[in-house]
Design a protein that fits this description.
This protein has one helix spanning about 5-60, and strands at about 65, 70-75, 110, 120, 130-135, 145-155, 160-175. It is of the alpha+beta class. It has one domain. Strands 4-3-5-6-7 form a five-stranded antiparallel sheet, with helices on one face. The termini are far apart.
Amino acid sequence: MPPATTRGSTVLEVVVALAILAGVLVSLPGVLLQAARATTIARRTVVASIAAADKLEQLRGLAWGFDANGTRIEDEESDAARSPVSPSGGAGLAPSPAGSLEADMPGFVDYLGADGEWVASAGAAGAPLVRRWAVVPAPAVPAETLVLEVRVFAVTGADGRGLTETARLTTLKSRRAR
């Protein structure tokens, strides 16, 4: 038979182990909740980044250069607020109105679903993502280079009126001969 001190320390070890286990079990739901929130935020950020990159590629794909004779080509008619881009009915690469990144401006905004799929170019109440873009002539060489900026916002708030910027991408588009 082991000495009494060994039996007492075994019971004490079991009590300490049970207390640690209880502490872990109590904190586990909080950790899982935080992990779920972090996963949701990360997913939304990835979807928004891809949506911003897709819009930049659409804008960069519009004609804006020179033809074989050196004549300027400027697509100011394509509707980039539609998916796929429509060849007419929009502003194309025309300079955007001031504030097109801060407010929904027709021709420079569209609405996306949770997976980044295009929903509508206007009036999409309930769409979880709003994508806005601006086309601005570069200050140093306005006739030759455009600054293209896209921002994607997550719709937040109980009333769906709040916006949280989730992604922002900017690039340049310069004229080139075709």
